[in-house]
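Design review, sub-item: ligand-bound model
Attendees: FS, YL, KQ
YL presented the inputs for the magnesium ion complex:
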Amino acid sequence: MNIDKKITHDLVANDISFVTTVPCKQLAGVIEEIDNHDEIFHIPSNKEDEGMGLCAGAWMGGKRPAIIMQNTAIGVTINTLATLIQYYRMPLPMLISYRGELREPVACQVEMAVHTKALLAQMNIPTYHFHKQSDVEELDMILKYTFMCNKPVAILTDANFWGGYGDQ
Amino acid sequence: MIRSEILKEIAPILRDQLVVCNIGIPSQELHAIDDQPTNFYMLGTMGLSSSIGLGLALAQDKTVISIDGDGSVLTNLCTLPTIANNVADNYILMIIDNGSYGSTGDQPTYTGKKTSLAGMARAAGCDNVVEVMDVDTGPALEKAIAEQKMTVMVVKCDSGNAKMPVITMDPVVIKDRFMKAVTA
Ligand SMILES: Cc1ncc(C[n+]2csc(CCOP(=O)(O)OP(=O)(O)O)c2C)c(N)n1
Ligand SMILES: [Mg+2]
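KQ shared the predicted structure:
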């Protein structure tokens, strides 16, 4: 199974039925796959903090949410993570493309990459880093863990995990 | 009328609905006027009342009213296209437009000048947008609930705040009793 299919399969298997996204080149495949699944309501958001608000509402309405976003969005969402998701203690799996890591072609992406893990650590957000394709095997456990502990949980997925960018 | 006077007047209408209430004095006023388990009080996160309410409305069938503010909508303007394009007919966004950042001391916002939130909502693609004066809020809200059509209400009113105590209820308690009310 390719990783886009495997990720979507694990979301569905964990009863995640409300997914919001702000795209990243690396996430294009998984977003397309999610759109192919009727079990998941996909609501694109325009900004990631807005997306987290949607997820908080969906959770309180009885649906298991997830957000798919780029690591640069950590810079957008700190306040929302602290004062909404963590303060009210809500679960939120965050599938995050980890731009600015090995095999990154765009230098500016490195500028948020160097802060990503430090910010997540400062926020006490459980953080997993997928670097090899086989790391996806842990996703199912991470999702179960997220809904067990009612916390936002970050899954950083770097370019190597996604198979690089081809010839750039 | 100021916000607290409107909330007092519509409290009997809000009582039976799921309400997501904006950060700061709006939540303090609603909490003091008529605390209900069906009220979700925001204690922080300026801007996200409309988004939380939309997510909630899309996830279940009961009517959801997001009470928002002009300043908060301005800071999360991208909510309007998301609302317009993901129609939930059990969703009402009621923006109390007092033309100011009321909670922080009534500093003016641009909606008291050239900017129209109703116009922006329409341009974003929202189909049912109504602008009403403070005194007409109750009937307009009842109409929106009865119609069962997604509605954006912009309520024009005066700037000013009632003196109410801060909410000391723990956020997890607010969430827990709200979630129980959602499924009740
Ligand atoms: C990110 C952020 N910036 C500023 C504030 C301070 N703040 C809290 S409430 C508020 C005003 C909100 O105004 P509005 O939405 O119009 O509501 P009103 O109190 O006027 O009803 C502001 C600026 C905040 N809580 N968070
Ligand atoms: Mg205001």
